[in-house]
Design a protein that fits this description.
- The structure holds three protein chains of three kinds.
- By secondary structure, chain A is an alpha/beta fold.
- Chain A is built from three helices and seven strands; from the N terminus they run H-H-E-E-E-E-E-E-E-H.
- The longest helix of chain A has 28 residues.
- By secondary structure, chain B is of the alpha/beta class.
- Chain B is built from ten helices and ten strands.
- Chain B has a six-stranded mixed beta sheet, with helices on both faces. A four-stranded antiparallel beta sheet of chain B has the order 2-1-4-5, with helices on one face.
- In chain B, helix 3 crosses helix 4 and helix 3 packs parallel to helix 5.
- The radius of gyration of chain B is 20 Å and the shape is globular.
- Chain C contains eleven helices and no strands.
- Chain C is globular and about 65 Å long.
- The two termini of chain C are 40 Å apart.
- The chains are: A alpha/beta, B alpha/beta, C mainly alpha.
- At the A-C interface, helix 1 of A face helix 4, helix 8, helix 9 and helix 10 of C.
- Bound molecules: adenosine-5'-triphosphate (ATP) and magnesium ion (MG).
Chain lengths: 155, 268, 274
């Protein structure tokens, strides 16, 4: 019976250690805390080109994450890319004429959506759409434009 | 005590690979008596006990215990039946991670809700009966072969079964212990009304306690009957076996082709 | 099926050349099929006994001790070192791109998605799986299992079920510990030794490791591996020829089959999940 007690204590310790490991992974390592559904609302935006934007990419305002991209698809009418995103309820006073651009973190970093605040009195709400959008910079297009400019000035 | 039949074997056939271990044997084991099963080594005495307990399935034939066909029972009922059986394995088969005391206490703890003090005294009693109360804190690896078999015997009778099968209980015991065990088996049988089946080569010891004797050889029952009938029987087989003569009809060799024909086969 | 195999065995006459090869292949595949069949039967009969292992908590706890607590030293050490090596190698590559802060997220991601579940499973197969097979094989060869049956104690409930459930619980826990230790090892090397910025180390990790995608999927993987290894180990013990040679063969088979099984299953799961 003494043996059984020892075994039980060890197993208890083992389970506690594992729970501690799980907590560490959940809180310190992963985005578990932001995974919990915070109250949020959905807005969308149409872009000519989303570049390398991915679902779950952050939506930032002045560098602060305020939401996440929830889906990316093609709009059946305009054939543009429709990006829907969730924005925290705490940021519910974004004017309706704010603009959304697809930006890149650093030269080779991940792409995210940056929101630039407008001046309108009316606010974005569930289901609204950004009027002003700026697509991702696509390196090939950029080089193409540059080449055109060079050849223009050369003439 | 009545001459009721407790275990009935009907036309049993059992094969190991190509080899027929039993070839249509029938046998009745009377209730409340000591039945001895004898036969040369390797004839299938252990196999017969395992068939009766439902651990092996016959290729044909039936075994009835207490009016139930053992091999047709649902798992639960089979386990119910086994609770009434005790088995002393040829090898002892003690649980190696428990000490002697816990081994004997094991069936009591698993099957009853007795408080620990009662289990203590029950186990002490059983160990006392086999003369090993002093060894109760040893682990199975610290026991000799004869001692482990005695512990296994104590474990086999722990739950006071209605029938008990002894597979070679006397092997590896000194003459004194053997005498004690013989007495124990017959005492259990008479005082508790147990049905005992004893498999043994020790002809004299077995015959001293057996009421009913059955001799098996080459898959067949070659003699059965009460002790007196067997001893006075005419059969050469029985005579040879009981008297332990080296020459006679009882085969000593595992079935094999004669030397010449086997070497023939090797050439081809 | 059984009849077919019997006749195959009866006719195990040695044929030469191509026909011999064909015959051998046929013979072996039939045997593999038969053992898969026996395995499936064994698992099917084990399933209904599983809930019992939670009813008999003492047996379960004992098996968790044997499989889990006794595997702790090897799992913790291995986790720590794997994390340290990952971090060191990652740093050496990333520093060329000036993005050495990413070393944290790289270590964490590879540990969570692949290295944690897979290496823990391989170690578990070697440490606990082989012991399980040997134990059951020996219990059978010394007739302990038969003795239990005779004492009207169902070995499925009493021996096999608690061991299976314990494996199922233990390996995921060991995997979590392996990963946590790996990340700590990575942190020690990156931040403590190579001077990566502590804040950047954690925040990069935090923004790249997704709870659902990475952590939960990793745990699912390790549960799948646990089922696989426990099944193989128990079946090999159950199926072992009860001799010392038979038991040692079965033990080897447990380690080989579970290791290959884990790697194969890992590929399939990765393809499905990520
Ligand atoms: N697992 C097995 N596989 C194949 N054959 C077996 C197996 N177990 C036993 N046998 C064969 O069955 C026969 C009967 O074995 P069994 O153990 O019943 O003999 P026994 O009468 O108890 O002998 P002993 O008196 O030596 O204990 C033996 O000849 C043996 O070759
Ligand atoms: Mg025998």
């Amino acid at each position: 019976m003494q043996r059984q007690l020892k075994i039980e204590i060890w197993v208890g310790a083992f389970v506690l250690m594992s729970i501690a490991a799980l907590l560490m992974i959940a809180l310190q390592v992963s985005n578990f805390s932001s995974w919990k559904e915070k109250p949020s609302y959905q807005v969308s935006a149409l872009f000519d080109n989303v570049g390398g934007l991915k679902v779950r990419a952050p939506v930032k305002m002045s560098g602060v994450v305020v939401g996440r991209v929830t889906s990316i698809g093609v709009d059946p009418q305009s054939f543009k890319a429709r990006v829907t995103m969730k924005i925290d309820r705490t940021y519910n006073e974004l004017s309706i004429d704010s603009s959304a651009s697809i930006l890149t973190a650093g030269l080779l970093g991940d792409q995210y959506i940056g929101i630039e605040i407008g001046g309108d009195e009316e606010y974005l709400a569930e289901g609204s759409e950004f009027e002003l959008t700026q697509s991702a910079l696509v390196l090939e297009d950029l080089i193409g434009q540059m080449l055109v400019k060079f050849s223009d000035s050369g003439e | 005590m009545s001459d009721q039949t407790l275990i009935e074997i009907k036309d049993l056939t059992f094969l190991r690979g190509e080899r027929k271990i039993f070839d249509g044997i029938s046998l009745k084991i009377p209730k409340g008596k000591v039945t001895a099963i004898m036969g040369p080594s390797g004839t299938g005495k252990t196999t017969l006990l395992k068939l009766i307990a439902g651990q092996l399935k016959p290729d044909s034939g039936e075994i009835w215990v207490e009016g139930e066909n053992v091999h047709k029972l649902a798992r639960k009922k089979l386990y119910g039946l086994r609770r009434k059986m005790g088995m002393l394995f040829q090898s002892g088969a003690l649980l190696t991670d428990l000490n002697v005391f816990d081994n004997v206490a094991f069936p009591l703890r698993e099957h009853t809700k007795l408080p620990e003090e009662i289990i203590n005294s029950l186990v002490d009693m059983k160990l006392q009966a086999v003369g090993l109360r002093g060894a109760k804190n040893l682990m199975p690896s610290q026991l000799s072969g004869g001692m482990s078999r005695r512990v296994a015997l104590a474990r086999g009778i722990a739950l006071d079964p209605e029938m008990i099968f002894y597979d070679e209980p006397f092997v590896g015991q000194d003459p004194i212990t053997m005498g004690v065990l013989v007495e124990l088996i017959s005492k259990l049988n008479h005082s508790l009304g147990l049905t005992s089946v004893v498999v043994s080569h020790d002809v004299n010891e077995v015959l001293s306690i057996a009421d009913y004797v059955c001799v098996i050889s080459e898959g067949k029952i070659i003699a059965e009957g009460s002790k007196e009938e067997i001893l006075q029987g005419e059969s050469e087989y029985v005579n040879q076996f009981v008297k332990g003569l080296p020459d006679g009809p009882v085969p000593f060799h595992y079935p094999v082709k004669p030397y010449l024909s086997e070497s023939d086969g090797a050439v081809n | 099926m059984g009849l077919l195999i019997k006749t195959m065995q009866k006719r195990s006459i040695k044929l030469n050349g191509l026909i011999g090869l064909l015959q051998k292949t046929g013979h072996n595949s039939l045997q593999i099929l038969a053992s898969v069949g026996r395995g499936a039967m064994f698992i099917m009969s084990l399933l209904p006994a599983l809930p019992y292992s939670f009813w008999r908590f003492d047996l379960l706890v004992k098996q968790i001790y044997v499989a889990g607590v006794l595997s702790l030293p090897i799992i913790l050490t291995a986790g720590l070192f794997v994390g340290m090596v990952m971090s060191l190698q990652g740093y050496n590559v990333l520093v060329d791109y000036n993005s050495e802060e990413a070393v944290g997220s790289m270590t964490a991601l590879s540990l969570l998605r692949e290295l944690g579940p897979v290496i823990s499973a391989l170690l578990f197969a070697g440490r606990a799986g082989s012991a399980l097979t040997a134990e059951i094989g020996l219990m059978r060869s010394t007739e302990q299992i038969s003795a239990l049956e005779m004492m009207a104690i169902d070995p499925l409930k009493h021996i096999y079920a608690p061991r299976f459930s314990a494996g199922l619980i233990t390996l995921p826990l060991l995997t979590l510990l392996f990963i946590a230790l790996g990340i700590i090892g990575g942190y020690m090397v990156a931040v403590g030794w190579l001077g990566v910025d502590e804040g950047a180390f954690w925040s990069q990790m935090n923004s790249h490791v997704d709870w659902r995608e990475d952590v939960v999927n990793g745990i699912i993987k390790s549960v799948a591996f646990a089922i696989l290894i426990s099944m193989i180990a128990l079946f090999q013990g159950f199926n072992a020829i009860p001799t010392s040679e038979g038991v040692s063969n079965a033990t080897t088979k447990t380690v080989v089959h579970s290791s290959l099984g884990v790697l194969g299953l890992d590929f399939v799961l990765t393809a499905v999940m990520f």
